[in-house]
Every structure is written in C-alpha cells, then in structure tokens.
Amino acid sequence: MAEVFEDTQVVPNPGPDPLEVWFEPWGMPHPLPPGEVFRVVGRSPQPGRIEVVASDGSVAVYGWPGSTLRVYNGEVLVDDFSIVFPELPPGMSTRGFVEFMFGGPGGPGRQPSQPVRPRPWWRFW
Q: What residue numbers bound the domain in which 20 lies?
C-alpha cells in the first residue's frame, strides 16, 4: 500500500466578526463565525504541508500538489475538497501559483462574501 502523507492545521477566529477563509487552489470561501475554529486536514501520496496565510481580514489556506483537503468545524465536515490538486511548474508553491494566475485568493476583483442582489435583466447593460 502506498504511503500517505497527512498535515493538519487549525484556523481560529478570535475576532468579533465572521472571518472569510479561502481554500486554494479550489477557489472556495467559507465564513468562520467568531470564536470558532476550522480544522483542516490535508492528505496526499506526496510529502507537503498546508500553508495558512492571514491578510486583509481574511485567511487563505493552500493545499500542496497531490493533496486533498477536508475542513471541519468541531466534528462537522464543512467541505471535502476531494479533487486532487495537480502538479505545479518546478519551483513554484501553491501560493505563488494562485497569486501569479489569479492575483491571490478568490481571483481578481474578489469581494468579501455578500448576498447577491438580483437585478432586473434590463439593468445588465
């Protein structure tokens, strides 16, 4: 049986407001309520580590090549990023790749999670 590498990181929200947590390279955000914690478990047949980066009131969690991630809040599974992260160009980190290709977590022009307000079709022009 092939060896499986596993890394677990904890992402807390000690603040009074929900924290937007992005999971890259899957490009998915999840709000983390105040006082709660995400436990992120990465697994891969390749050695690697989860990278957690906080900036601008949000947090980005980066997988590594060959990895999948599971995100838990307590014992509740929040998300299962089961699509395997593909290989990267030699010498490039996941964070470097996402920043180079998309400008950072969530891509260009990302806005904090807000409800989408429906607009009448005639106002799209």
A: 5-108
Which pLDDT belongs to residue 1? 63
How many angstroms from the chain centroid is the CA of residue 111?
Answer: 15
Number of H helices, E strands in the chain: 1, 8
Q: What are the two backbone dihedrals, phi and then psi, of residue 98, each rounded to the nearest 5 degrees?
A: -65, -40
Closest CA to 32 of 81, 72, 80: 72
Give pLDDT tens digits for 20-39: 999 999 999 999 999 999 99
This prediction has a pTM of 0.80
Number of domains forming the structure of the chain: 1
The Cα–Cα gap between 53 and 38 comes to: 14
**Phi and psi at residue 12, in whole multiples of 5°?**
-95, 160
